[in-house]
């Protein structure tokens, strides 16, 4: 039976880590441009002011990446092609690490990722809030998110309320008449998840956990103050661009649009009448998201499409490349600006936006984003891990690195109805974490 059948809580869940022992984690980032497998060793770390929510140090011991085939805008279009690429990426990581991988934490970008907040409340009758009350209100919120065609990826309590007073982080032991909770639930279409599972299974591997791409890239690219004060991480991939909004240390909103760096390449190939691979090279070497005064005077050589040796490359002004590129980039950034505005989280994001993902490396991208988004913009590279080869330290590897960080965050999530309840609070020594452990063992 498929691991994705049954209730909306039927996805495989990444087990929260033991804070006292080391773990080896294997992850797979399946993107439209590349497929990346990372094997990492997680060792317990002492609490510190740097990355205070992290319980483990992450050291990359194996890395394999391959150019994607069979993926279009995050959606699996050719099972055989994707299976082959997955095998090659995993095999390269296994050889580097000297380990064999059996199960993986996998990202998901497809399936029209949804982001909703559900509110539930229960009557306390003026009594003290007990662990059983917390469990009831979390289950009540979780049940609202169940749907036959969608599966829950993440279920994160963002805050409790007592008698209408919101923003309570720790209601346990407090008195009141009504206990409420706001639950951020991230969902995706089941069909997309089943196809993802099928690809992994065909490569003789199993899915250990599924993480929404915007969550993973945000975990890798944002610093503590951004996550706490409120910030949007925009991951610009080859076929998809995703948004994640963080505040008060938690993921509070996600979104995705089916446009990425590959669409810029395709526009160039059409506009200049050249092959896709030549258009990609022109974009990387000569492309820019903003116009430059010298672009009209500088000529760029564009190879012809035909195989005839007599066909000569054409010379076009660099300004033409910039016009084609900037039109698509501006359209994408305007869509992102409107999505953030429409979400209602624009005030939470404030002036902080971090761009990550391979497509954000285009020359002039931060300047274009600052102008259109009207916010402070920086390029986010993966942080908080050691052992990354130089080639994997750029924004293109943020999602893969974020997947290795994610297991430390798994105990912030609530998955009621799975025979257990992960503590909604990350500190393994807190009263909440101990209560979550007790609930997991007792129910």
From TrEMBL:
<comment type="function">
    <text>Cell division protein that is involved in the assembly of the Z ring. May serve as a membrane anchor for the Z ring.</text>
</comment>
<feature type="domain" description="SHS2">
    <location>
        <begin position="25"/>
        <end position="221"/>
    </location>
</feature>
<dbReference type="GO" id="GO:0051301">
    <property type="term" value="P:cell division"/>
</dbReference>
<comment type="similarity">
    <text>Belongs to the FtsA/MreB family.</text>
</comment>
<dbReference type="InterPro" id="IPR020823">
    <property type="entry name" value="Cell_div_FtsA"/>
</dbReference>
<comment type="subunit">
    <text>Self-interacts. Interacts with FtsZ.</text>
</comment>
<dbReference type="Pfam" id="PF02491">
    <property type="entry name" value="SHS2_FTSA"/>
</dbReference>
<keyword id="KW-0132">Cell division</keyword>
<keyword id="KW-0131">Cell cycle</keyword>
<dbReference type="InterPro" id="IPR050696">
    <property type="entry name" value="FtsA/MreB"/>
</dbReference>
<dbReference type="Pfam" id="PF14450">
    <property type="entry name" value="FtsA"/>
</dbReference>
<keyword id="KW-1003">Cell membrane</keyword>
<protein>
    <recommendedName>
        <fullName>Cell division protein FtsA</fullName>
    </recommendedName>
</protein>
<dbReference type="InterPro" id="IPR003494">
    <property type="entry name" value="SHS2_FtsA"/>
</dbReference>
<dbReference type="InterPro" id="IPR043129">
    <property type="entry name" value="ATPase_NBD"/>
</dbReference>
<keyword id="KW-0472">Membrane</keyword>
